[in-house]
Design goal:
- The complex is a heterodimer of chains A (125) and B (108).
- Chain A is 0% helix and 52% strand.
- Chain B is mainly beta and 108 residues long.
- In chain B, the strands form two sheets. In chain B, strands 1, 3, 4, 7, 8 and 9 form a six-stranded mixed β-sheet that branches.
- The chains are: A mainly beta (125), B mainly beta (108).
Chain lengths: 125, 108
């Protein structure tokens, strides 16, 4: 069974840091690009970052480049998002997702075919 | 940066067809993916690479893509199709994922 489980969300003050984790099971984790997406309350989906199965290259949305860092540990089947200098507008549900493979090729443009349930981050003083 | 434009809402009567456009400059040259999100749930992939359906997605849901508009169609709409729908592409110029703003489908 394909499963992604996010953790690490919580309440943090502006300027603080959090590290989100996403534990994967049911597939060969290192074969797949992985991605982080967030959804602010009442708003749409907002892509944050993607990483290749090997750990490089990485891709970032302009809104989080320099503040957020994506990483992975294939020995632990885990994806991470280190979030620094958090702002009130970073309040959101954060999802991790697996990027599909097409015709044997893993590319960042493939669809997000498996999603976790999300973890909630609240940035407030 | 690349922009995808969706109408905020679409209303449709049960049994009719819902059509959700996703506009973008020369979007026909890109691969478009569509997601359905019901309240309180994570998104679910319903169409990938313009027109392919994951297993378990009914044939009533289909996609097309040409010119400056990609379209998600839901025929014989049911109450269970009420959800937000998002289109998504990969922009090769910026190496960014781009989502449309989402369309709320309401079944009358």
């Amino acid at each position: 069974q394909l499963l992604l489980v996010e953790s690490g969300g919580g309440l943090v003050k502006p300027g603080g840091s959090l590290r989100l984790s996403c534990e994967a099971s049911g597939f060969t984790f290192g074969d797949y690009y992985m991605t982080w997406i967030r959804q602010r309350p009442g708003e749409g989906l907002d892509w944050l970052s993607s990483v290749r199965g090997s750990g490089t290259p990485t891709y970032y949305a302009d809104s989080v480049r320099g503040r957020f860092t994506i990483s992975r540990d294939n020995t632990k089947n885990s994806l991470y998002l280190q979030m620094n200098n958090l702002r009130v507008e970073d309040t959101a549900v954060y999802y991790c997702a697996r990027v599909g493979i097409r015709f044997g090729y893993a590319t960042p443009g493939n669809p997000f075919e498996v999603w976790g349930r999300g973890t909630t981050v609240i940035v407030s003083s | 940066s690349y922009v995808l434009t969706q109408p905020p809402s679409v209303s449709v009567a049960p049994g009719k067809t819902a059509t959700i456009p996703c506009g973008g400059n020369d979007i026909g040259s890109k691969s478009v993916h569509w997601y359905q999100q019901k309240p309180g749930q994570a998104p679910v992939l319903v169409i990938y690479h313009d027109r392919d359906r994951p297993s378990g997605i009914p044939e009533r849901i289909s996609g097309s893509n040409s010119g400056n508009t990609a379209t998600l169609s839901i025929t014989r709409v049911e109450a269970g199709d009420e959800a937000d729908y998002y289109c998504q592409v990969w922009d090769t110029d910026s190496d960014h994922v781009v989502f449309g703003g989402g369309t709320k489908v309401t079944v009358l």
